[in-house]
């Protein structure tokens, strides 16, 4: 079995999370500048066995696509061209940013630490991955 890598895509920063090789535990990996995302992913899969990408799918409350979906679709086209052998699945990410912020509060992070947007993105990717694992277990 290989790892599953989750992507919380953003136009500036992208949060990443990954499972262990047994696909049981989701852990935050890092946050990268979106401009360097494809290169980072290529470097990562050269070292780690990644079986699948899980990409957050932002939706409005009425279930329609969010405005950021346009940018995600462009990224997905590039990802499929550069790394065609790894399948991509989408996961509803409607409340992940709010849940990530609440997770930071619940874990006792100080206000200054909770303003770290990169950390929010990484936690959001972890929540996307946990949601995927829960729905596929």
UniProtKB/TrEMBL annotation:
It is found in: Cytoplasm. Could be a nuclease involved in processing of the 5'-end of pre-16S rRNA. It comes from Winogradskyella flava. This is Putative pre-16S rRNA nuclease. The lineage of its organism: Bacteria, Pseudomonadati, Bacteroidota, Flavobacteriia, Flavobacteriales. Belongs to the YqgF HJR family. Pfam families: RuvX. Residues 2-100 form the YqgF/RNase H-like domain. InterPro entries: RNaseH-like_sf (IPR012337), YqgF (IPR005227), YqgF/RNaseH-like_dom (IPR006641), YqgF/RNaseH-like_dom_sf (IPR037027). Keywords: Cytoplasm, Hydrolase, Nuclease, Ribosome biogenesis.
